[in-house]
Amino acid sequence: MRARLSLLLGAISAALVAFALTSAHVVAADKVDPVADAKAFQNFFFQKFPNVKHEDFVNGPYSMNEDLKRQWQEKEEFPPYEFALDAGKEMFATPFKNGKTYADCFPNGGIGIRQNYPYFDEKEGRVVTLELALNRCREANGEAPYSYVKDEMASLTAYMAFTSRGKPMDIKIPDDPRALAAFENGKRYFYTRRGQMNFSCASCHVQSPGERIRAEILAPALGIVNAMPIYRSEWSGMGTTSRRFVTCNSQTRAVPLEPQADEYRDVEYFLSYVANGLPISGPGARP
Amino acid sequence: MRKILSPFWRVHSPDCQAMSFVLWNAPVSAIATIATTPRNDALTALSRMPVLFLLLAIAAGLARAAQAQSAVADGQKLAFDRGKGNCLTCHAIKGGDLPGTIGPELKDLKTKYPDRNELTAIIFDETKRNPQTMMPPFGRNRILTEQEISAIVDFLHTL
């Protein structure tokens, strides 16, 4: 009897220990650790493509294919985004009706700061992207906001990116549970399959970069935002980060969100943070 | 072979079905004739029967071959159609231009998958076997109907 009782007690305590161990493990897995995530994310690409220089990942498909890279370098002699760059520079310098300019809305007059966007606004409790900050600047000065996907918005961000070229991406995640939640939400959005085609962002840009989808070479997710905005031959024009997300969703037959929806802001926050240290290369040109 | 089949080749499958319906009516009317004609004539009618059945069998065989051919042709069309199977986006396939490189080349599939149910299952929802796959679940997500998948399997078995 006593033996049986001790056996039972032993089994119960073993079960308790096992339970404690697994629950501790679950807690550890649930902990949001952006530093570890960024390291793992970068190492994945560095190991998958040992011959690609780290700073080259920001050049998307051109980092994956020598022929394409040569064509692109030739094209860069007369970059297709130049018209947008010129327009953006002029717009940036032109005062609003109230006499103020974009420079009044941004640190350092808006020059060389693109690598700090998006940032987490602790007052608002949400992620603020460069595109959002630009439209807020306009509205604060009595101007109508621009479309988030192209034209003026792409020109303005092209100019601001150009003034930051070469500067390493430098996204901060403040010690605020809401910032960690935004990062985690962006990460979840990135890895979740959706749409009729059942693709996640990661299906193409983590599992298959360098592979061809028809004639197009898939870009690595690492550094993909560093090149924004981009001129795409496929679009015959410029597109912003918002446009990139919207078209990715519609091309995989998912329902696109509104530009600057929380999920898009969070996924941009996630993608930018894990690209920390890689240079800004925007505006870019893509096939 | 292609030349011999060419009149059938152009026939759409509904017509094929209509034709076999007409052909199937033949023995019925033959039997009806036997039943209503006097005994002597019945003998001659019976002696004609094997010829009739032979002709019928040949015609049915040709119709079936034509149907199979047209399923293969439909399958290829569906496989190459960007709005349907769009298989070329990821797979190299003989006869297709600008293939992608994400999936393996589609060849020797009859050897690799002699059981067409296996190919059907892969196209219907490959995530069941391999949760990490890039392959869209064409059946589960209603990108293709069951008949369309079946036609594509017919085509894949010719590669």
Protein topology:
The complex is a heterodimer of chains A (287) and B (159).
Chain A lengths: L1 H29 L3 H15 L17 H10 L6 H12 L25 E3 L4 E3 L1 H11 L10 H12 L14 H15 L9 H5 L6 E2 L2 E2 L12 E3 L4 E3 L1 H11 L10 H12 L10 E3 L1
Parallel strand pairs in A: 5-7
Antiparallel strand pairs in A: 1-2, 3-4, 5-6
Helix pairs in contact in A: 4-6, 7-10
Chain B lengths: L1 H9 L2 H24 L2 H42 L28 H4 L3 H10 L20 H11 L3
Helix pairs in contact in B: 2-3, 3-6, 5-6
Tell me what you see in this structure.
The complex is a heterodimer of chains A (287) and B (159). With 287 residues, chain A is mostly helical. Chain A is 46% helix and 7% strand. Chain A is built from 10 helices and 7 strands. Chain A has helices at 2-30, 34-48, 66-75, 82-93, 130-140, 151-162, 177-191, 201-205, 241-251, 262-273, and strands at 119-121, 126-128, 212-213, 216-217, 230-232, 237-239, 284-286. In chain A, the strands form 3 sheets. A 3-stranded mixed β-sheet of chain A has the order 6-5-7. Chain A is globular and about 80 Å long. The termini of chain A are far apart. Mean pLDDT of chain A is 91; it is low at 16-28. Chain B is mainly alpha-helical. Chain B has helices spanning 2-10, 13-36, 39-80, 109-112, 116-125, 146-156. The longest helix of chain B has 42 residues, at 39-80. Residues 1-40 of chain B have low confidence and may be disordered. The chains are: A mainly alpha (287), B mainly alpha (159). Chain A binds chain B through residues 196-199, 203-204, 207-208, 211-215, and chain B through 88-90, 98-102, 127, 132, 134, 136-137, 141-143.
